Amino acid sequence: MSVGNKFRFEPEFRLALEGKPWMFIFWGRHDFLNTDKFFIKARTNVTVTFNTISVTTDNIPSNILRANRTMTSDLVANYRLTKNISIGPYYLYIYGVDKYAIKNTHFIALRTGFSNIKLSDQFFMGFNPQVYFLKMDKDHGYYFNSTLTIAKRNFPISFATLFSKTIHTEIPLGEDMLWNVSLIYTFNKKYIKL
């Protein structure tokens, strides 16, 4: 959902299939420059992420859902090389509010975008690879990730997959490569101010 024009409020609510909350993000976004070829945007948000932790109360173990708060700001620029190819840098800073959180996270990326790649008269895809540097307090790493989206023209449902691969890292990770698949529903309504 997006409310506003040059300055926008865009909340996001991410939930697991069983209804368990993953993340609530409350974005404030501002377009400094937005032309057909180039844009610069700044954004800030308050995020609440949720994770399950084990606790013991009166010698009885149980699992509870803990909320973790962060404050985030980012700056993104993008240059359109052609109608369907773009490139640009991205910088994100996250401050961990809670005492047990990672305090300072820096994310620097070089993003590319290939959009509206024709697969047939009805189907098209988008491909968005990026390389990035991630620093979380004292640990850092270098990574590659990409999103691939397949959609049908004039149809609200599309499919996307995202994968991320470690190039080199000091950050402890569970997996060297991560991926997921998404089903996306796009609302095709436009609202105007009365």
Textual characterization of the structure:
- Helices cover 0% and strands 74% of the residues.
- It has 194 residues and is mostly beta strands.
- The chain has one domain (3-185): Porin (Beta Barrel), CATH 2.40.160.
- An eleven-stranded antiparallel β-sheet has the order 1-2-3-4-5-6-7-8-9-10-11, with no helix packed on it.
- A hairpin with a 2-residue loop joins strand 4 (38-57) and strand 5 (60-80).
- The radius of gyration is 19 Å and the shape is globular.
At CATH level 2, the architecture is Beta Barrel
Order of helices and strands: EEEEEEEEEEE
How do the strands line up in the largest sheet?
1-2-3-4-5-6-7-8-9-10-11
What about the largest sheet?
Answer: 11 strands, antiparallel
- Given the structure, what is the number of helices? 0
Count of domain modules: 1
Q: What is the beta-strand fraction?
A: over 45%
**Helix residue percentage:** under 10%
